[in-house]
Amino acid sequence: MDLTVRDLAVARGGVPVLEGLSFGLTPGRALVLRGPNGSGKTTLLRTIAGLQPAFEGEIAGAGERIAYAAHADGLKSMLSVAENLTFWAQAFGTADIAAALTGFNLEDLARRPAGTLSAGQKRRLGLARLMVTGRPVWVLDEPTVSLDAASVQLFAEAVRGHLAGGGSALMATHIDLGLAEADVFDVTPYKAEPRVSSADEVFL
Amino acid sequence: MSIWEYANPVKFIRTTDRLLPWLSAGAVLCLVFGLVWGFFFTPDDFRQGSTVKIIYLHVPSALMAINAWLMMLVASLIWIVRRHHVSALAARAAAPIGATMTIIALATGAIWGQPMWGTWWAWDPRLTSFLILFLFYLGYMALWSAIDDDDTAADLTSILCLVGSVFALLSRYAVNFWNQGLHQGASLSLDKEENVADVFWYPLLVCIGGFVLLFIALVFLRTQTEIRARRSRALLARERAV
Amino acid sequence: MIALLLRDLRLSVRAGGGFGLGLAFFLIVTVLVPFGVGPETGLLSKIAPGVLWIGALLACLLSLDRIFALDWEDGSLDLLATAPLPMEGIVSIKALAHWITTGLPLVLAAPVLGVLLSLPEGGYLWVVISLALGTPALSVIGTFGAALTVGLKRGGLLMSLLVLPLYVPTLIFGAEVARRGADGLAVETPLLMLAGISFGAMAILPFASAAVLRINLR
Question: Least CA distance to A49: which residue of chain C?
Answer without folding.
Answer: C82
